[in-house]
Design a protein that fits this description.
This protein is of the alpha+beta class and 221 residues long. Helix content is 22%, strand content 33%. The chain has 5 helices and 14 strands. The strands form 2 sheets. Strands 1, 2, 3, 4, 5, 10, 12 and 13 form an 8-stranded mixed β-sheet that branches. Strands 6-9-14-11-7-8 form a 6-stranded antiparallel β-sheet. Strand 2 and strand 3 form a beta hairpin.
């Protein structure tokens, strides 16, 4: 991982929230309550990192909002330059689609909110890395048909009512969105969740909390 990305992750590691917007018949906007990610039907990913910096223990503040703002922008610009040859941090600065773009950078006292939009899950993983230090260690977004073609068994899954389902049930709707994830996080989906791994906890019709240990599945429409 690029050192500049490591530094940004370390600076925000205290509390991370992830978000994404998209378009769906069953549209659900992101409403984070804690660490998590939001998956849209277009398979793009946006991260929202909310961190509280406490300077009270230091004679001279170690965290300065203006310095962090510059640092965050430079980090995203460097990432886009490396990935796409475009040195920009906001979609407003270019007509070209950016691998990562700052959608919001807000300071409220000691709390900083940084929202980044990624074109896809690969850009998201490239930016944050896949080490044990990050909440999401692996992430793939596709369709149920993609999962079938890859030979996934779709065992140990539940429906939205918490009832066990068969692989045949899961495979019936091949166009539904499939999320494969490994990590310790909350996942909100743009569409209603139809099936999910039985190691997850369904908190509402759009949201699950992962089990953390193994690769798990979410299917939403």
């Amino acid at each position: 991982m690029n050192p500049i990305k490591k530094l940004l992750i370390a600076a925000l590691a205290a509390a991370c929230l992830f978000s994404l917007t998209g378009c769906s018949l069953f549209s659900h906007s992101f409403d984070p309550k804690g660490t998590g990610i939001y998956i849209a039907s277009d398979r793009s990913v946006t991260s929202a990192e909310i961190t509280v910096f406490d300077n009270s223990a230091f004679d001279t503040p170690r965290y300065v909002a203006s310095e962090f703002e510059t640092y965050a922008r430079d980090t995203v610009k460097a990432f886009n330059k490396e990935k796409a040859g475009v040195e920009a941090y906001s979609a407003d600065d270019t007509d070209q689609k950016l691998p990562a773009a700052i959608e919001k950078l807000e300071f409220d006292g000691d709390t900083t909110t940084l929202i980044l939009k990624f074109q896809g899950f690969k850009d998201y993983l490239d930016f944050y890395g896949t080490t044990d230090a990050v909440p999401v260690r692996s992430l793939i977004i596709g369709s149920v048909q993609d999962g079938i073609s890859s030979g996934l068994s779709f065992e140990h899954m539940l429906d939205a009512d918490g009832k066990a389902v068969t692989a045949a049930d899961v495979k019936a709707d091949t166009e539904y969105t499939l999320v494969m994830i490994t990590g310790d996080t909350e996942v909100q989906c743009e569409g209603k969740i139809v099936y999910y791994s039985d190691t997850m906890k369904l908190t509402d019709k759009y949201t699950v909390v992962t089990g953390g240990a193994d690769t798990e599945f979410i299917i939403f429409k």
